[in-house]
Amino acid sequence: TRGDVAKGKVIAEQVCAACHGADGNSVASANPSLAGQHAKYLESQLKAFKSGERKNPIMLGMASSLSDADMKNVAEYFSEQKLKARQANDKALLPAGQKLYKAGNPVTRVPACMACHGAAGKGFPAQYPALGSQHAAYIVKQLNDFKAGTDRKNSIMADVAMRMSDADMKAVAEYISGL
Ligand code: HEM
Ligand code: HEM
What 3-state DSSP class applies to 88? Predict the structure, then answer.
């Protein structure tokens, strides 16, 4: 069943807007935009914050105040908002970022991100989050979190991130933010 968008909107406006924007387009680069993200993925992350599986002190507090129904509703609301297109900050990194995103790196065995996150960065609803137009700084932090495996655990993304250098992460994040 789908969440209740009207109920989700109330939570978004009262609680989440300060950091993620009332319409899910955030301003500060540490706070991810949530607009247009798949509802199932958003809900899964809220559950992970609440259980402590994904560690973030701010989001632990936020998710702890939400019931399962609240999570479903607010996830549905943000998934229905329109994500604003973003321009990459550092255009010089785009060719390297694009290459990694689309083809991976056979030498270091980084897989193509496109295989799971889609050529246009929209992901696939049931399994893979959308990445396009996300803040580059947020993307880099997530890749480092997956690599370290303490604040964010995911076996697929840990295996991807452990093969990436800092330069790979920065370049691919710039490319993704402009998608
Ligand atoms: C991350 C939802 C309130 C700061 C996230 C994520 C979700 C989310 C789903 C993960 C996004 C992803 O994986 O792409 C919500 C909801 C809120 C809320 C539904 C209201 C009930 C807030 C507030 C703040 C905040 C008020 C700031 C005080 C952050 C930060 C992250 C984050 C910094 C990134 C955490 C990291 O680096 O892993 N939020 N949020 N959120 N949120 Fe919120
Ligand atoms: C999540 C980047 C390749 C599957 C993520 C996130 C980022 C990311 C930044 C977190 C999104 C967010 O917090 O909103 C990348 C990059 C890749 C890559 C840069 C290529 C270098 C792949 C591949 C797969 C994959 C090849 C599938 C085999 C996933 C899954 C998640 C995810 C399942 C969700 C993890 C969770 O639930 O915490 N990816 N990805 N990714 N990615 Fe990738």
Answer: coil
